[in-house]
User: What shape does this take?
Amino acid sequence: MQRFKQLFNFFIQSSIHVALSVCGLVWVTLLNFHIGVDLNFLYFIFFATITGYNFVKYFGLAKFHHRQLVTWLKHIQVFSLLCFLGMCYFAVKLRIETCLYFIVLGMITFIYAVPIIPKKIFIRGGKLREISGLKIYVIAFVWTCVTVIIPLLNENHEINQNVLVESVQRYLYVFTAMLPFEIRDMQYDSLKLSTIPQRIGIIKTKILGTLSALLIFLIEFSRANIVANKLIILGVVCLLLILFLGFSRVKQPSYYSGFLVEGIPILWALLITLNF
Assistant: This one.
């Protein structure tokens, strides 16, 4: 049991779970638009997500403890290096245009984690993530690009009404799914970050997230063509978002957000696949 717990902790802390979630959302997009899956693209997304997330999460820790890294962090560093090599391997199999899109997002990720911009612009200095109130919107934008815009551009799909609907829905989805994390992190985040729960309180945050989830579902009716099965699945996803947000609190059970909320896209992808 102890061994299983260690493996599970590594699964979460090394960002494998979030990478599967991102791939799940890419899968949902491709199936929604009846596009065949490019496995090289999907593998690249998986390894790039792990590389990017671990860089953002552990850059500061590694910088200050590089001489005395604890064992779990050393393991994650080695694993992240292997994933970076995997990302590079599959990157050369992608189209040049697709690589350029990811380079832009990579620059955003770098600025998000590393203090390279003048301190007077930021609350503590140099990091995009530390601009007051910006964090959730940057993450939603990046996830929307990675899971909707770039996969469709990679397949030369035209930007039509359904693409715009999918993009707005995905942005709202990520925005809503981030709220349980922001509620959890209220006990750690500086007040200067001005997260949504810090600004409007937990109750109003839950109301805002509920309205956002309902909007995701309602926007589906603006598609050029509505598929009953996909509508039902989207309704289930939105209901799960609302329930998980409703039960979220500052002191959450272990992995409530990091596993359950983060795992919704995996379930979404499975349901879409079974009904495709």
Notes: The chain has a mean pLDDT of 87. The CA atoms of residues 160 and 189 lie 39 Å apart. Residues 2-274 form one domain. DSSP finds twelve helices and no strands in the chain.
